Amino acid sequence: MPQPPDSADIPEARVTPHRRWSLQLVWLIPIVAAVIGGWLALQAVLERGPTITISFSTAEGLEPQKTLVKYRSVDIGRVTTVGFSKDRKRVIATVELSKQAEPFLVADTRFWVVRPRISGTQISGLGTLLSGAYIGVDVGTSHEPKRDFVGLDVPPIVTVDLPGRQFQLHAADLGSLDVGSPVYFRRVQVGSVVAYALEPGGTGVRLRVFVNAPYDAYVKTDTRFWQASGLDVELGANGVRLDTESIASMLLGGVAFQTPAETAQAAPAEANASFALYPDRRKAMRLPDTAEESYQMVFDESVRGLSVGAPVDFRGVVVGEVAAIDVDFDAASGKVRIPVEVRLYPDRLLGKTKRGARRPGALIEKLVAHGVRAQLRSGSLLTGQLYVALDYFPDAPKAAVRMRDGRAEIPTVASSLKELQTTLLRLARKLDKLPLEGTVADARKSLQALQATLAATTRAVNHVDSDLTPQAVRTLADLSQTLSSAQKTLADAQRSLAGVDGLLAQDAPVQRQLRDTLREFGRAAEALRSLAGYLERNPGAILRGRIEGRSQ
Amino acid sequence: MSAAPTAARLGLLACEVCRLVSRAPPPGADAHCPRCGAALHARKPASLARTWAFLIAAMILYVPANTLPIMDTSSLFGTQSNTIVSGVAFLWTSGSFVLALLVFVASVLVPLAKMIALTVLALSVQMRATWHPRTRTRLYRVIEFIGRWSMLDIYVVTILVALVHVSTLASIQAGPAAAAFGAVVVLTMFASASFDPRLIWDVMGERL
Lengths: 552, 208
Prior knowledge:
The complex is a heterodimer of chains A (about 550) and B (about 210). Chain A is an alpha+beta fold. Chain A has helices at about 20-25, 30-45, 130, 245-250, 280-285, 360-370, 415-435, 435-505, 510-535, 540-545; strands at about 15, 50-55, 70, 75-85, 90-100, 110-115, 115-120, 120-125, 135-140, 150, 165-170, 180-185, 190-200, 205-210, 225, 230-235, 240-245, 255-260, 275-280, 295-300, 310-315, 315-325, 330, 335, 340-345, 370-380, 385-390, 400-405, 405-410. Among the domains of chain A are: about 40-150; about 165-285, no CATH class; about 295-415, no CATH class. Chain A is elongated, with a radius of gyration of 60 Å. By secondary structure, chain B is of the alpha+beta class. Chain B folds into two domains: about 1-40, no CATH class; about 45-205, Butyryl-CoA Dehydrogenase, subunit A, domain 3, CATH 1.20.140. Chain B contains seven helices and eight strands. Chain B has helices at about 45-65, 85-95, 95-125, 135-145, 150-165, 175-195, 200; strands at about 10-15, 20-25, 30, 40, 70-75, 80, 165, 170-175. In chain B, the strands form three sheets. Chain B has a four-stranded antiparallel sheet with strand order 6-5-8-7. In chain B, strands 1-2 form a two-stranded antiparallel sheet. Chain B has a two-stranded antiparallel ribbon with strand order 3-4. In chain B, α2 runs antiparallel to α3 and α3 (about 95-125) packs across α4 (about 135-145). The longest helix of chain B is centred in the middle third of the chain and has 30 residues, at about 95-125. The relative contact order of chain B is 0.18. β1 of chain A pairs antiparallel with β3 (about 30) of chain B, so a sheet runs across the interface.
């Protein structure tokens, strides 16, 4: 231990008055820190929004702490954890949302994962190739709050805030349609197929289509929808016509709609109204068959070439179709009949104006009474397809629509081919029976008689030649004499006429004398006129006579 | 057993600036170095109180520094905000074990260890404990030495913010935790600076 130095060598410290306030100041620092920390904590608590769960079928693209929830491209939350549901069939994403997303959480709000998607005509979510998937939101309109959601597997075609209306379509099959297939109105894309499902019982397909505003106003109560999928090739008198909505719809299918011109002024259809989806435009735009009647026809010939669906035709107008071809064994007669069941649309025979309520069957009964019969005809010589023709057969025996087995039956006539066949056969049989040899012998005899007759005729002509000619010559000479005397008479008449002519000629004496007399008469009249004028001026002349030199 | 002669016990004060030794004035007045004029103290004034104040402030701010994001990275691939721990976890899972370890030690372990150590020291002085004064002094020296390295994280963030700023493609922004973390580091440095290790030995004097 060193010795303490001499205290005398150590200088005194300088002394200043005591200050101790700095001690209190230092405690401000933890207070400020506490205030800052508390404020941050408070802010975190205040900004903390609701936590929800969304279940998805797969967690593809979902990353905890990374995947965002976006509404209109604005971040409103983030996936915190991704786990399994209790039955391990679904993935449950826990999402922490920001405070502002609180009112979004209602019962019909929908969530889906936005990933790159190529479907039909559109490619969506390309941005997520780089940024990674995110969860999209379509905010519902309900007021019922909800915290546990089931996410959609595909993004919804139509969001709640998109203006427009949905309609329901019923089709026999889906065709090439799919969710997202376009809906066309006059080849303008105005909407899309939103969903489809089988009808309960599997009897058809039910589709939901969404038509954007303002085009939804064009969907009227009588609007027809048809599948615009594929090509519509029509071979007509003007050549081949190819009809399709667009190349895209040709490849991917689509739905088109239009309102017939007759009913274009109809009221707009209500939202969710149901329509039939026809397979093509022609079928769709046809007037609807309000009445449908079922009949049976029994043809006494082969129905080979007749198929179910073959048309029933009235002079080129399709009025129905073959519904079924049956076989019926009649035990009593031991015969097999082939009843053909047809569906007729009698309205098609009436024209547009005369439709209305009638007693079912009345029209067909009337037609049959006027000679209309059913007949099998060949539609195409090449394929041998048959169709059922209704036509007038005035020569057919009288018949009426009668009921057999509870079904009205239209009487039939044999097909023209068969009729021709039977007629030819009958003719051949008759020809066969003709006594040809006897006929030929008769004909020869007749020819001989004819020859004899001709010889007699020649003789008669010769007789006429020799007997009658001299008489005729005499008669002609007489006639000549008569004619010459007539000529003389005519010459006399000519002379008389020449005398008359001289009398009437220009310089004939009678005429000249008459002309001189008239001239004289004219001069006298002139002198008389001058006398009369003079007297008028000088009335005294009557008494005194004419005074010379005062005439003017 | 007599007390060891220390400057304080001999009534002497050493100037902390020019190292001149001078005689202490009677208690109740502030002393100044007669040569350079610096304030003279036998022990750092209000050492324990200041240490506690800085320490508590550091502890409070340590919570947001670790729970709030320190860095917001936004790029074409989306935005991402990382806390210190998630950054370390990311580095670890992406295979940069050394870097992860370095950042973890510098940013998490060191400030934490420093705060715990200072708490132990301050508590032991407060309770006039006589337990292993030499070890505690060594602990203090270690704290003083390693304290500055915990600013590593702030350096990393600062450099990244400055470098990666391709506005549309990618940008990095310092989060609120960066400020809190910086404050934690500065406050612990202040705390260790205001702690007077001689206080450890003051209680030992009689029993040396």
